[in-house]
């Protein structure tokens, strides 16, 4: 079989066998509609409500009724932001504060709202990739309807000071949404401790199935609906429940929370080993983003004089699946907005690689990765006229 070393857990994860087992009955046997009154429907209703209670417990919500199932993390982000500002419109709210390094699910939603006539402030990050809570406070206006700041960044893994921002939004009476999609499963989440009103998570980032997410809506917070139709999710998010997905998501989050210490220790060790070896063996490399406030499994490095896409393709040929963490992969040639926001010049941002470690990775895989990287980087640089000029100039 072709070698497969999967180092892209920030993009998605496989489904854990225990999770798949928990989901199985809801495809062939327990197929009833959760809104129906006969027994196979009732069993499904019960499964959905148990999953809701589990997820509420795992993120520290006050009650299961604060958990709303959606079709993805993207939908949860869209609902939180559009739902909050549309509800605030009647009271004159028309301003959103977010950061420069959000996921497209937040960034593009805010840009869309800007076209609709809302004002958006994109607070910057420092060279470590961190938001300064004071910048958020300075940006608050009387018509600010929502602050939306991510918990952990999907490209560089930096963890934002959510609790400090939560204290500020609370003081000013402004709603606070947090995209915790990348954080969930890797670091603890406690919505009350963080002081958030709205929080998004997505199952496929923590070894659950794709196509199911959650929006936590603190009791008393009113959002406009995004999806209209039937009475599912207490009339707030129409559409027949994805029962198997919901059950799988709850099981995956329960496992993630129970094993978090062990898991984060393991992936941190692999990540730190990879970082150390790369820095030791390859010249003209920089690590992007704070190492202190960072997800345990994330490493983002830039290789000077290298084109990230070529690097990814050559790694793929060696069986190593990684990402540039940038929009390049989706067909755009612009370098990552996150790397530009932390101050990287375009040409260096272009030579970037995101490695995100997971449960099944091993020390041997890290050794293999670094060997391949050293070889590929040297090969690509030997073909680079820029590198040649650089060497001549520095002789
Ligand atoms: C993956 C991701 C999303 C989108 O979640 P989907 O379920 O894939 O739609 C949103 N925000 C962040 C930070 C992510 O990493």
UniProtKB/TrEMBL annotation:
Q: Where in the cell is it found?
A: Cytoplasm
Where are the active-site residues found?
Answer: 328
Alphabetized UniProt keyword annotations: 2Fe-2S, Coiled coil, Cytoplasm, Iron, Iron-sulfur, Metal-binding, Pyridoxal phosphate, Transferase
Name the Gene Ontology molecular function terms of this record.
2 iron, 2 sulfur cluster binding; cysteine desulfurase activity; metal ion binding; pyridoxal phosphate binding
Which EC number(s) does the record attach to this protein? 2.8.1.7
| Domain named Aminotransferase class V: residues | 5-369
Q: Give the source species.
A: Thermoclostridium caenicola
- Name of this chain's protein: Cysteine desulfurase IscS
InterPro entries (alphabetical) = Aminotrans_V_dom, Aminotrans_V_PyrdxlP_BS, Cys_deSase_IscS, Cys_deSase_NifS_bac/arc, Cysteine_dSase, PyrdxlP-dep_Trfase, PyrdxlP-dep_Trfase_major, PyrdxlP-dep_Trfase_small
Tell me, in one coarse class, where this protein mainly resides. cytoplasm
Sites where the protein binds [2Fe-2S] cluster: 328
Might you name a Gene Ontology BP term for this protein?
[2Fe-2S] cluster assembly
PTM annotation (N6-(pyridoxal phosphate)lysine): residues:
205
Subunit composition and interactions: Homodimer. Forms a heterotetramer with IscU, interacts with other sulfur acceptors.
Q: What sort of enzyme, by top EC class, is this? A: transferase
The cofactors it requires, by name, are: pyridoxal 5'-phosphate
């Amino acid at each position: 079989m072709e070698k497969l070393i999967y180092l892209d857990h920030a993009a998605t994860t496989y489904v854990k066998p225990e999770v798949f087992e928990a989901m199985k009955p809801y495809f062939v046997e327990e197929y009833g509609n959760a809104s129906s009154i006969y027994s196979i429907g009732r069993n499904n209703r019960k499964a959905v409500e148990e999953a809701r209670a589990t997820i509420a417990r795992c993120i520290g919500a006050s009650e299961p009724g604060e958990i709303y199932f959606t079709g993805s993390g993207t939908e949860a982000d869209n609902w939180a932001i559009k739902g909050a500002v549309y509800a605030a419109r009647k009271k004159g709210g028309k301003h959103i504060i977010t950061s420069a390094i959000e996921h497209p699910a937040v960034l593009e939603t805010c840009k869309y709202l800007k076209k609709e006539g809302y004002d958006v402030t994109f607070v910057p990050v420092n060279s470590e990739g961190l938001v300064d809570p004071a910048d958020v406070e300075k940006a608050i206006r009387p018509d600010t309807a929502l602050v939306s700041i991510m918990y952990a960044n999907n490209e560089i893994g930096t963890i934002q000071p959510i609790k400090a921002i939560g204290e500020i939004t609370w003081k000013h009476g402004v709603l606070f949404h947090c995209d915790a999609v990348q954080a969930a499963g890797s670091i603890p989440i406690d919505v009350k401790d963080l002081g958030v009103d709205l929080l998004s998570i997505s199952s496929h980032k923590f070894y659950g199935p794709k196509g199911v997410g959650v929006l936590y809506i603190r009791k008393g917070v009113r959002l406009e609906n995004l999806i209209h139709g039937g009475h599912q999710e207490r009339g707030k998010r129409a559409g027949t429940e994805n029962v198997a997905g919901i059950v799988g998501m709850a099981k995956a989050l329960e496992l993630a929370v129970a094993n978090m210490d062990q898991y984060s220790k393991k992936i941190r060790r692999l990540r730190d080993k990879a970082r150390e070896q790369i820095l030791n063996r390859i010249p003209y490399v920089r690590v992007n983003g704070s190492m202190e406030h960072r997800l345990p499994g994330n490493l983002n490095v830039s290789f000077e004089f290298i084109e990230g896409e070529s690097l990814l393709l050559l790694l793929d040929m060696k069986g190593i699946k990684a990402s540039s963490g940038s929009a390049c992969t989706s067909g755009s040639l612009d370098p990552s907005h996150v790397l530009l926001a932390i101050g990287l010049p375009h040409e260096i941002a272009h030579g970037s690689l995101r490695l995100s470690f997971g449960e099944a990775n091993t020390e041997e895989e890290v050794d293999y990765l670094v060997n391949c990287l050293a070889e590929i980087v040297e090969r690509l640089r030997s073909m680079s006229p820029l590198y040649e000029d650089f060497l001549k100039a520095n002789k």
